[in-house]
Amino acid sequence: MTKELEIEFKNMLTQEKYEELLSFFKFQPSNAVTQENQYFDTRDFQLKEKRCALRIRKKSDRYECTLKIPAQEGNFEITDLLTAQEAQNIQHAVSFDAIEVLQALTEQGIDWKALRPIGTLVTHRIEFEYNGGLLVLDHSLYNGQEDFEVEYEVTDAAAGQQKFNRFLTEHDIPVHPADKKIARFMKAAKSQF
Q1: Mean pLDDT across the chain, nearest whole number?
Q2: Domain extent for 136
Q3: What is the value of pTM for the model shown?
Q4: 3-state secondary structure of 14
Q5: Domains of the chain: total
Q6: β-strands 115-130, 145-154: how paired?
Q7: Comparing C-alpha atoms, which of 119, 135, 118 is closest to residue 127?
Q8: Which CATH number does the domain housing residue 114 bear?
Q9: In sequence order, what DSSP letters do the residues of 115-135 get, joined into one string?
Q10: What are phi and psi of 147, to 5 degrees?
């Protein structure tokens, strides 16, 4: 189990700008690692109402369950590693074996038995150390949508914001703040509910 504070800055990219950044940093789309996020909420969207997000991420043969809870700066991320069977048990509401996440859900007043899968988002991700943080280039597919974004994950919000703004300027990237992936996913899925 891990619990960490996530501080990140995001900006949407055009496909052209995404490809320019890949080229600039000497990456190919084939260098991306594919991860599949399955999101969960209750029928009445209690997690969304609390500005929380719950997902099971599959990356290679590894599974993890993460609950994001708003913090003063960023989000707290509570993550438990899962086996494939434990992930399947959560997906089918058989059992909830992500113990630390379960405890945090309970503290938020959420009954795990009321959770249901609301959909899947696939991301092709390239990430690398950059200027004291982690720079992430994402190509995401969900609900018939496709988008591109850059993220910069840091430990210091003020310094990180300055570095991210400088990065956008240096690469001639128009400022187009990105909602969190779960928010973009939910907006695209709205008609399905």
Answers
A1: 94
A2: 2-192
A3: 0.89
A4: coil
A5: 1
A6: unpaired
A7: 135
A8: 2.40.320.10
A9: EEEEEEEEEEEEEEEETTEEE
A10: -145, 170
